[in-house]
Amino acid sequence: MTAATGVSAAAERSTTAHVVWASALGTAIEWYDFLIYGTAAALVFNKLFFPSFDPFVGTLVAFSTYAVGFVARPIGGAIIGHYGDRLGRKTMLVATMIAMGLGTFLIGCLPTYSQIGVWAPILLIILRFVQGIGLGGEWSGAVVMVIEHAGDRRGFYGSLVQIGFPVGVAASTGIFALMTQLPEADFLSWGWRVPFLISILLVGVGFIVRLKLAETPHFKEVVERKEVLAQPVLEVLRRDWRSFLLAIGITVSEVGLAYLLTVFTVVYATTKLGLPRQVILNAVVYAALVEFATLPLAGWLSDIFGRRALYLAGGVFSVALAFPLFWFLDTREPALITFALVVTMTLTHALLFGPKAAFMPELFRTQVRYSGASLGANVAAALSGGFSPLIATALLAWAGAYWPVSVYIIALSIITIIATLMAPETARDALKS
User: Fold this and answer.
1) Taking CA 96 as the corner, what is the angle to CA 95 and CA 98, rounded to the nearest 5 degrees?
2) Contact 311, 351 (CB under 8 A)
3) pLDDT band (50, 70, 90) for residue 8
4) Cβ contacts of 308 within 8 Å, gap of 6 or more
5) Which of 77, 23, 385, 60 is nearest to 212 (CA)?
6) Which of 116, 212, 263, 402 has the most CB atoms around its CB within 10 Å?
7) SS3 350
8) What's the pLDDT tens digit per position in 108-167?
9) Does the structure show a pLDDT above 80 at 381?
10) Distance of alpha carbon 262 from alpha carbon 170, whole angstroms
């Protein structure tokens, strides 16, 4: 047994269920850490860190710092993916949790612009960058860990890890919804900090759980055969470039939708429509809660009908619902807004995100699986995820209406549909060795 595997005799006896549970829990905590920034950017950062701007311009600037985390994600994906393919999946999953936890906690400790001037937004951007580095290797490591333990039910077991996203959305949005019940002065003074500060407790729990994980049998085989690559990231770009480009293409729509539905809708409802924050925050929470069921369902269906079928359905629904989503939002009726977000999240994001945990790693062989999945997911996230709220807000300001945002959603969806049609079906094949 080598030090590289980090596998103990006790860890060898870990079941797939334990691996799924530990990976999903850790991913939920990491998503919570990453997503509370987006909610804070939509609600409070423009006032506390960029107060010299017009409120709408301040929101644009706040979303620019939000996008910094996504710019950092490919860098984190390359670094963490490299070591994940060299040292093992478990080692890097523990490292990402430490990076994310510290970055998030320190944001909650930051002085504001009124206290230290320009250093406040500078430090905010630095910590957001640290968050992005951590998340860059988190999701891919968690799904590779599960997929390499899961046998023939990779779609279903992988989709259970994806539940971490709606858990993070519901928890991050829900705690901000609770904090907004405070008087405005208290919320701006200390209430907004609470979601960031409590993350340190969640990270502690996730850290302990992940220490008990077993390394995957596929990675151990690579180590035993002495086939660990010296430069797995370069190998992805040199030999697996087609899979890398397909991974980006199938992801841009899903990751863009994720942040348009959970972040931009908050801005649109509160600034354009003048709705109370509670209305849209509650709708986002309910939509996220529904994904607890729809994500595993989508993963399960992808084991039966294939990854491509689910992706094509998600892409088509994304095109079809791009305009109706805003028709319902514009009614200003809480029940209709909630209905629209639930249906849209279910028929678009869930159908794409559920099978993604299996589809993305299945495109790559074991020696570069962590690096390939990390790069594919995070380059796509940098291109469409982090910039989607910023682009959508800018389009809204330019046109004074939602229609360019709907066109933007359709454009992203068409890219995903084309990439899916070009991708191989991987559901019924063994993992590439």
Assistant:
1) 65
2) yes
3) very low
4) 420, 421, 423, 425
5) 23
6) 263
7) helix
8) 999 988 888 888 888 888 888 888 888 788 888 888 988 988 878 899 999 998 888 888
9) yes
10) 10
Residues 6 or more apart whose CB falls under 8 angstroms from that of 320 comprise: none
Non-local (6+) Cβ contacts of 66 within 8 A are 37, 38, 41, 128, 263, 386, 389, 390
Q: Which of 415, 65, 43, 30 is nearest to 265 (CA)?
A: 43
What string of H, E and C letters represents the secondary structure of 271-287? HHCCCCHHHHHHHHHHH
Q: Where are the alpha helices (DSSP H) in 322-402?
A: 324-329, 334-344, 351-362, 369-380, 388-399
pLDDT in tens, 240-276: 999 999 999 999 999 999 889 888 898 899 888 999 8
Q: How far apart are CA 2 and CA 32, in angstroms?
A: 34
Indicate the residue type of 389: P
Other beta carbons within 10 Å of 177: 19
User: pLDDT at residue 4 above 60?
Assistant: no
* φ, ψ dihedrals at 395, nearest 5°: -65, -40
Residue with tokens 């596929």: 218
Per-residue pLDDT band for 59 (boundaries 50, 70, 90) equals: low
Q: How far apart are CA 361 and CA 141, in angstroms?
A: 10
The pTM assigned to this predicted structure is 0.82
d(C-alpha 426, C-alpha 432), whole Å: 10
Rounded Cα distance between 11 and 4, Å, is 14
Contact yes or no for 130/99 (Cβ under 8 A):
yes
CB burial class (10 A; 0-12, 13-18, 19+) of residue 304? exposed
Q: Where are the alpha helices (DSSP H) in 148-213?
A: 154-162, 164-179, 184-189, 194-197, 199-211
d(CA 418, CA 253): 11
Residue 5 has pLDDT above 60, yes or no: no
Give the Cα separation of 274 and 400 in Å (integer): 14
